[in-house]
Design a protein that fits this description.
Elements: H1 2-18, H2 20-24, E1 35-37, E2 48-51, H3 69-76, E3 78-79, H4 80-83, E4 90-97, E5 103-107, E6 115-119, E7 138-142, E8 162-164, E9 172-173, E10 186-188, E11 196-197, E12 211-213, E13 221-223, E14 232-237, E15 245-247, E16 260-264, H5 283-292, E17 295-296, H6 312-319, E18 351-353, E19 364-368, E20 373-377, E21 396-399, E22 407-408, E23 417-421, E24 429-430, E25 442-444, E26 465-467, E27 469-474, H7 481-491, E28 497-503, E29 506-509, H8 513-519, H9 521-557, E30 577-582, H10 588-604, E31 609-610, H11 612-615, H12 622-631, E32 633-640, H13 648-663, E33 668-673, H14 685-692, E34 696-698, H15 706-714
Parallel strand pairs: 4-6, 6-7, 7-8, 8-10, 9-11, 10-12, 12-14, 13-15, 14-16, 16-17, 20-21, 21-23, 22-24, 23-25, 25-26, 27-28, 30-31, 30-32, 32-33, 33-34
Antiparallel strand pairs: 1-2, 2-3, 4-5, 18-19, 19-20, 28-29
Helix pairs in contact: 5-6, 9-14, 12-13
């Protein structure tokens, strides 16, 4: 008997399915008051009725951005069997336990309805009944609060609209589970044990999924393909999970031009802003998300740090249309906890930098994107020098004020610095290379011990500033550039510097240095002239004292008869000898050369030569004879050797020769450098002068003209 009943039910349902499409098509001819049948390219269901009010252009109070019919109907559309007042459109099926057969489906009283729904709650159902496919017109399944662990392949229920499996034991969802349900609009999987959802589980078409409930599960992460669906939907409810991470396992490329919906992530564990580039989300996509996918993350421990700030303005703009977004609050850091994100100044969204990232010891470092800078605060830390390393960021804003630094040295990280404060230190010296760094816009050197300013400071032009405060520096009239620099600062209304100059024991305003130096110019010129004159006199005196004999020989050679200093009187021409020979008579070689070569040669050429060993009277007083014969000679032949002037007689002889040579401009001296002596080996300054000026004849006689040269030199002047 039961078997016959089942056969009849099958044919009844099969017949109902065959005529379903034909019967529903009559809805176009029998409209429901206040509704219209909604057709959308991205929605497979043909049973949806949307209120006529959704066709109005509503711009206020919308749930998410957009005012098209689609964005309204995904929220307010309902299936035909709900909106219609017709009877016998939808019937109810019951589940009854039947021993070993498990559960069987029992039709309700009205078994000739177009659609059916089935409800079985708070039972021990652990699998879907195998007889579901016998009722293909089922549009609503509610198996909540049971023991179901898996969702079977029930593609036979191709017009299923609502599936409620809340409070069951499902732990994992695959991306093929729901693709067979093209008409599925509402999916409730809340209050389960779901721990993982495969990518693209809900992101499929053809389909009709619009309302997804996944709250109160055990999800720790969610793939972006299950949030940013490629079609318009009402909401995805993920509140009260443990989500702290977002993924894009498939490196999915998002196109959100015709999609959007509400995403609820209330009461999760979201604290850090995700790495959007790693998730494949570019700035245009993020901007689109802000307007198309309002995300509610209330009651999350959000860390309001620098990673949030770059997207703050876009989300602030989008939040004007979404009330929920305006209530988001910070969970961290402590000083921002509980404050609404969009009411916080962008300057407070910072990220602390640790010593691991090269923040100097005992300093505070943080990144501040709102001002495009990384702040390094080392004020009042008793630092004696600038550190050698800093965090590897651009836009460094360094504060080393109130320390003990004495030298401002160049560091490579200064090339990445925009501002540095070194006020209230003990700086005396500034590295000139610092002024040439193009990225530094401000240097504060107030309240230091600076006494010199390098001219490279002129490289700070336009809006770049270097602040010295009120200082006195040592200046000179060559520093007129400082006046030009200060005048340019005044044109920019810069009041950072009041510089005075200590110049010539006077303190003046540096900006008037040109006027001061103009007044002092005449005095300086006289001083320079006197200085030059004194220098000339000094040099002349030194030259005279050290080289007076050389000067005398040069002047005598220029034949200056009126040079009174060297020509005090004129002697008569001697008549006894033409040449007086002076040499060391104890030197055998010289004596032999003079007796056998020099004297005979000169006498053959008409010279009367006085040869002391030959012409002096034996037994006479030698000194008297030297004085007499030198005075009676016209010229003098001196044979210079290492042992010349060794005896006192030779010294007397040479002194008398020089005295008569100076007293009479007509007398000549011919010096033969017998031992080829260098001037440094000669002590007598007069003989040294002859050698220095090359007024001697070398004994080497390389050109065989020694005697000819001697005869020419010894001829008396006329």
């Amino acid at each position: 008997m039961e078997f016959i009943i089942m056969i009849k039910l099958f044919f009844i349902n099969f017949g109902g399915y065959i005529c379903l499409e034909a019967n529903f098509s009559d809805t176009d001819r029998q409209p429901i008051p206040g509704y219209f049948q909604w057709h959308e390219d991205t929605v497979a269901s043909e049973f949806l009725m949307c209120p006529n009010s959704c066709q109005q252009q509503i711009t206020k109070g919308r749930t998410f951005a957009g005012n098209s019919v689609t964005t309204r109907c995904v929220e307010y559309s309902r299936p035909y069997w709900i909106t219609s007042k017709s009877e016998n459109l939808i019937g109810s099926l019951r589940l009854e336990p039947r021993g070993e057969q498990g559960f069987v489906i029992v039709p309700g009283v009205a078994n000739d309805t177009l659609f059916n729904k089935i409800l079985y709650q708070q039972g021990n159902l652990n699998v879907f009944p195998s007889s579901l496919c016998e009722f293909r017109n089922i549009v609503d399944i509610n198996f909540s609060q049971n023991q179901i662990e898996n969702i079977p392949d029930i593609a036979c229920l191709h017009i299923l609209d609502t599936l409620n499996l809340s409070f069951n034991r499902i732990e994992r969802l695959t991306n093929t589970t729901f693709r067979v349900f093209e008409h599925l609009r509402v999916l409730d999987l809340s209050d389960k044990k779901i721990q993982y959802i495969e990518p693209n589980t809900f992101n499929y078409r053809p389909g009709s999924l619009m309302k997804i409930l996944l709250c109160r599960n055990f999800l720790k992460s969610i793939d972006m393909t299950n949030l940013l669906l490629g079609y318009s939907f009402d909401f995805i409810q993920l509140s009260n999970n443990h989500i702290s991470e977002f993924t894009n396992e498939l490196d999915f490329k998002f196109n959100l031009s015709k999609s959007g919906g509400n995403i609820y992530l209330v009461s999760n564990q979201i604290s850090e802003s995700p790495n959007f580039s790693k998730l494949g989300l570019t700035l245009p996509i993020l901007f689109s998300i802000a307007f198309r996918y309002p995300i509610n993350i209330i009651d999350n421990p959000i860390n309001c740090n620098c990673k949030v700030e770059p997207f703050l303005e876009q989300f602030k703009l989008a939040s004007k249309n979404f009330v929920e977004m305006q209530n988001h609050t910070c969970g961290h850091p402590p000083f921002l906890r509980g404050r609404q994100i969009f009411n916080i100044s962008a300057d407070l969204f910072i990220c602390n930098i640790s010593m691991k990232d090269k923040c100097p010891f005992n300093c505070s470092c943080f990144e501040q994107p709102s001002r495009s800078r990384l702040v390094v605060n080392c004020t009042m830390r008793r630092k004696y020098r600038l550190p050698s390393e800093f965090p590897q960021h651009n836009g460094l804003d360094i504060d080393f004020s109130h320390n003990l630094i004495t030298v401002f040295v160049y560091r490579t990280y200064l090339e990445r610095t925009s501002s540095i404060d070194l006020s209230y230190n003990q700086i005396k010296t500034v590295d000139p290379f610092v002024y040439g760094i193009p990225n530094i816009n401000n240097i504060n050197l107030k309240h230091n011990s600076i006494s010199q300013i390098h001219r490279n400071v002129q490289l700070f032009k336009n809006e770049r500033t270097v602040q010295f405060g009120h200082i006195t520096i040592t200046c000179s009239c060559e520093m007129k550039w400082i006046q030009v620099w200060l005048e340019n600062l005044n044109k920019r209304r810069s009041d950072y510097n009041f510089i005075t100059c200590l110049i010539q024991d006077e303190v003046i305003d540096a900006i008037s240095i040109s006027q001061f130096c103009t007044v002092e110019k005449t005095q300086s010129t006289v001083q320079y002239a006197l200085l030059i004159l004194l220098l000339f006199v000094f040099i002349s005196l030194v030259l005279y004292l050290t080289m007076k004999y050389e000067i005398y020989l040069l002047l005598r050679n220029f034949k200056m008869p009126n040079f009174s200093r060297f020509n005090n009187f004129v002697s008569l021409q001697p008549t006894r000898f033409d040449v007086y020979s002076s040499f060391n008579t104890e030197n055998y070689n010289i004596m032999k050369w003079v007796n056998t070569v020099v004297v005979p040669n000169l006498e053959r050429n008409g010279f009367k030569v006085c040869l002391p060993p030959r012409d002096f009277s034996p037994g006479g007083v030698q000194v008297e004879q030297i004085l007499t014969e030198i005075a009676n000679s016209n010229s003098y032949l001196v044979i210079l050797s290492k042992d010349y002037l060794k005896s006192q007689f030779q010294k007397t002889e040479w002194n008398q020769i020089w005295a008569h040579y100076k007293s009479n401009k007509c007398r000549r001296i011919a010096v033969v450098n017998y031992d080829i002596l260098n001037s440094s080996h000669i002590k007598d300054r007069r003989l040294k002068a002859f050698v220095r000026l090359e007024r001697t004849f070398d004994f080497c006689n390389y050109d065989n003209k020694l005697m000819d040269n001697l005869k020419t030199r010894l001829k008396s002047r006329t």
